[in-house]
Amino acid sequence: MKRPDLKIKPIKNGTVIDHITVNKSLYILKILGLPSKDARDVTVAMNVSSGEMERKDIIKIENRELNHDEIDQLALIAPQTTLNIIRDYEIIKKDKVQLKEELVGIIKCTNSKCISNKTTEPIKSKFEVINKSPAELRCKYCDRIIKSEDIEAQFG
Q1: β-strand partners of 45
Q2: What is the pTM assigned to this prediction?
Q3: CA–CA separation, 12 vs 91, rounded Å?
Q4: Digits of tens for pLDDT over the chain (156 positions)?
Q5: Residue 79 in contact with residue 46, Cβ under 8 Å?
Q6: b vs e for 68-77, b when ≥16 Cβ sit within 10 Å of the residue's Cβ?
Q7: Which of 29, 33, 78, 142 could lock 24 by a disulfide, CB 3.0 to 4.6 Å apart?
Q8: What separation in angstroms does the CA of 119 have from each of 60, 112, 123, 153?
Q9: Burial class for 143, CB neighbours closer than 10 Å (0-12, 13-18, 19+)
């Protein structure tokens, strides 16, 4: 029996972001600064069927690997995501994103009076992760709880 054609063309080198929570790919594109004039061959598939999670989004980015801050932000938005590093059309590395116990400088505190939001203070925001899915964070400076809706709003 002949295998059906792939709906999404494979990439030679780059990153495939797979198992993205359905309809979260647009947030991820914003985190990654995509689309951009420098980015070539970016493929986005939204709300596609999946054996593991019923429906999912997928992003393929030719000739780009994500940095640690991008991965941390991605873990906040879509904690079930898998990153695949591709070289010569082969997956050489496959990892689930992991939300760290503490996040520094990744998002802003929603408390406008928090010291981390003062332009006169040279400190970065710092959050303790109190729930991973859905993400829920506690500001280390003012104890404000940041819920997933507040996190998404910062990337929206």
Answers
A1: 58
A2: 0.84
A3: 10
A4: 666 655 678 899 999 999 999 999 999 999 999 988 777 789 999 999 988 889 999 999 999 999 999 999 999 999 889 999 999 999 999 999 998 999 999 999 999 999 999 988 889 999 999 998 888 999 999 999 999 999 999 987
A5: no
A6: eebbbbbbbb
A7: 78
A8: 37, 11, 9, 21
A9: exposed
One-character DSSP codes across the chain: -PPPPPSS---SSEEEEEEEPTT-HHHHHHHTT-S-SS---EEEEEEEEETTTEEEEEEEEET----HHHHHHHHHH-TT-EEEEEETTEEEEEEE----SEEESSS--S-TTSGGG-TTS----EEEEEEETTEEEEETTT--EEEHHHHHHHH-
